[in-house]
From TrEMBL:
Organism of derivation: Kalanchoe fedtschenkoi
Boundaries of every Glycoside hydrolase family domain copy: 34-487
Keywords of this entry: Carbohydrate metabolism, Cellulose degradation, Glycosidase, Hydrolase, Polysaccharide degradation, Signal
Name of the molecule in the record: Endoglucanase
Entry EC number(s): 3.2.1.4
GO biological process: cellulose catabolic process
Signal peptide boundaries: 1-21
Chain coiled-coil ranges: none
């Protein structure tokens, strides 16, 4: 009889407090500590900082660098981020990073708890720089550092002595791609700071409007004028049309001014709204613009943007194995595989888009239509989770592709500051060519760039962990930025936040 009473009381406790059952279920299913991964994914940005580091800098092996950036053009360009494992400040990927970090916070910042302020700090480090880069009307300073000379050296950012040449776009040599992306970044960030710092938010949106006008009025691709400087690193292969649509979409969301809705309605088709380019990264923003505008239709009921729901659906359908119109490749271990160079950026951006679109579909009680097959939000979330789990260690090599996360992760990442002794460990300057002895060594990097996502495995799930293999072993800011939002969602959904 005593046993029956015990069983009755046990089940009564579960019925009276369903959160017990919920927590049990969640902790059973969560394979990874997404909250820890979220913390680290944001911390990574501190390792990429250029300029005068603040007193609350947590990545202690870094020091001040690039303190005279912009001096050659008599403009203050101190600050911002190094894009990857080099010491150049490329404005195009930096702006995209800023847009995606902002979008991460706008969709999932409410779930981030203590990490929200760190995410905002990461955004502000970029926007402070972008405001400096756009200080003069009809001009954007788009790069600091001679990339070819920088890449001929292997030295710490604190030591760099390669030319810090400044490159710009203006009326005579336009760059609608980099200008459109910069406008998107400033507009998206203005929404992030709207409540917490209204004065700063207004400054960002005013600048975004001005920069977008320049992007639209003086049309052209920045690669045409700066080919020797930006190619092959950040050539605008997809043209500038996607950035104009993306910039307008963000200004529409940030301002709610009819001007931008009208601009999208008039120019959407010519800017490639319905092209079937199913790739989303630092170069091509069409997918992002489609999803953003689909929200206006789904959630705000802007009927004139209904086509963007169809365009967004087409992209989602391309990702779903076995669905009509599926066109994406996956590795044998299940990783989305788009390109051999830094493939993980497409994994993180796609995961974020899937979770964000699932949110819009849930709010509007909608589904994705794949040639008559209905795909619901739950399916999208499952695909996104599978990709993030692969990245965190659920893969054939049982390796985390986030540095410092899990028991096994890349030790020899293609990153100058991480691979060379820190200033604290080796105060004397390390000369340009001297650093290559460290680059060529098989020793693990002395400084752990916590939270860095590397380019990732090849199409067969192989990963050599070689420092010289930049395609697979180099981290970048735009790989981390979309993952921040995805990890916040997953950490919350498994009761970790």
């Amino acid at each position: 009889m005593g046993l029956l009473v015990f069983i009755f009381l046990f089940f009564s406790a579960f019925l009276l407090n369903p959160s017990n059952a919920n927590n049990h279920h969640q902790h059973r299913v969560a394979k990874y500590n997404y909250r820890d991964a979220l913390t680290k994914s944001i911390l990574f940005f501190e390792g990429q900082r250029s300029g005068k580091l603040p007193s609350n800098q947590r990545m202690k092996w870094r020091r001040d660098s690039g303190l005279s950036d912009g001096a050659t053009m008599k403009v203050d360009l101190v600050g911002g981020y190094y894009d990857a494992g080099d010491n150049v400040k490329f404005g195009f990927p930096m702006a995209f990073t800023t847009t995606m970090l902002s979008w991460s916070v706008l969709e999932f910042g409410g779930l981030m708890k203590n990490e929200l302020q760190n995410a905002k700090d990461a955004i502000r480090w970029a926007t402070d720089y972008l405001l400096k880069a756009t200080v003069h009307p009809d001009t954007i300073y788009v790069q600091v550092g001679d990339a070819s000379k920088d890449h001929a050296c292997w030295e710490r950012p604190e030591d760099m002595d390669t030319p810090r040449d400044v490159y710009k776009v203006d009326k005579n040599s336009p760059g609608s791609d980099v200008a459109g992306e910069t406008a998107a970044a400033l507009a998206a960030a203005s929404l992030v700071f709207r409540r917490s710092d209204p004065t700063y938010s207004k400054l960002l949106i005013r600048r975004a409007i001005r920069v977008f006008e320049f992007a639209d009025k003086y049309r052209g691709s920045y690669s045409n004028w700066l080919k020797a400087e930006v190619c092959p690193y950040y050539c605008s292969y997809s043209g500038y049309q996607d950035e104009l649509l993306w910039g307008a979409a963000w200004l529409h969301r940030a301002t709610r001014m009819p001007t931008y809705l009208n601009y999208i309605q008039v120019n959407g088709q010519t800017l490639g709204a319905d092209e079937s380019d199913n790739i989303f990264g630092w170069d091509n923003k069409h997918v992002g613009a489609r999803v953003l505008l689909a929200k206006s239709f789904l959630v705000q009921k802007v009927q004139s943007l209904q086509d963007y729901k169809n365009h967004a659906d087409n992209y989602i359908c391309s990702l779903i194995p076995g669905a009509p119109f599926s066109s994406s490749q996956y590795t044998p271990g299940g990783l989305l595989f788009k390109l051999s160079d830094s493939n993980m950026q497409y994994v993180t951006s796609t995961s974020f888009v899937l979770l964000t679109y699932a949110k819009y579909l849930t709010t509007s009680h909608s589904v994705v239509d794949c040639g008559g097959t209905a795909i619901n939000a739950k399916k999208l979330r499952a695909i996104a989770k599978r990709q993030v789990d692969y990245l965190l260690g659920d893969n054939p090599l049982k390796m985390s592709y986030m540095v410092g996360f899990g028991k096994r992760y890349p030790l020899r990442i293609h990153h100058r500051g991480s691979s060379l002794p820190s200033v604290a460990a080796h105060p004397a300057k390390l000369q340009c060519k001297y650093g290559f002895s460290f680059m060529d060594s098989q020793s693990p990097n002395p400084n752990v760039l916590v939270g860095a996502i590397v380019g990732g495995p090849d199409r067969n799930d192989g990963f050599p962990d070689q420092r010289s293999d930049y395609e697979q072993s180099e981290p970048s800011t735009y790989m981390n930025a979309p993952l921040v939002g995805a990890l916040a969602y997953l950490a919350h959904s498994f009761g970790q936040l």
